[in-house]
Design goal:
Layout (H helix, E strand, L loop, with lengths): L1 H15 L7 H11 L10 H16 L6 E2 L1 H17 L7 H11 L5 E7 L4 H9 L2 H7 L5 E8 L5 E8 L1
Parallel strand pairs: 1-3
Antiparallel strand pairs: 2-4, 3-4
Organism: Zobellia amurskyensis
Protein name: CAP domain-containing protein
InterPro entries: CAP_dom (IPR014044), CAP_sf (IPR035940)
Length: 165
């Protein structure tokens, strides 16, 4: 059943996004450059704020708080760098991220929310709450999360939040 959920999520992610022609090798290399492998990591103020507002929202609707995970943080960072290099937000290579988290963090089910060009945690939370798909992800049965917020050369912020059980 667990593997079915992962395969279903991969199929949905593939159907809901347009994949670029870039290979996953680029994102793999980016992950290697920012990988944390369960080491203690220091996240930025805005990254912590996103985790906090998402947890406040989850608690307000009767759900558990999600705990920070450094392995997922490495993948969120790498995906932000990839999106910045492509100049657009996308779920490209999600199946690879989910598969890697399945192996490296023993994840049974993985999902992600993305955003771009928001300036603070409250604004991205409101956008996600107002999108049925993003809201469903935030309200999912998850235990762990990580969020990366990365600015491109023009100061535009890219957001990747990974959730997993």
């Amino acid at each position: 059943m667990v593997r079915f959920n992962i395969l279903l999520l991969i199929a949905l992610a593939t159907l809901m996004t347009s994949c670029s022609t870039s290979s996953t090798t680029q994102e793999d290399e980016l992950y290697k450059a920012v990988a944390t492998t369960n080491e203690e990591v220091e996240i930025s103020t805005i990254e912590q704020e996103v985790i906090d507002v998402v947890n406040e929202y989850r608690v307000s609707v009767g759900l558990n708080k999600v705990e920070f995970n450094s392995v997922a943080y490495g993948y969120a960072n790498a995906h932000n760098e990839y999106m910045i290099s492509e100049g657009v937000i996308s779920h490209d290579n999600f199946d690879k991220r989910a598969s890697n988290l399945s192996v490296e963090a023993n994840a049974d089910f993985v999902s992600e929310n993305l955003g771009m060009d928001f300036t603070n945690a409250n604004d991205i939370l409101e956008a996600w709450k107002n999108s049925p798909t993003h809201k469903k992800v935030m309200e999912g049965d998850f235990k762990y999360t990580a969020v990366s917020v990365t600015a491109d050369e023009n100061g535009v912020l890219y957001f990747t939040q990974l959730f997993f059980q």
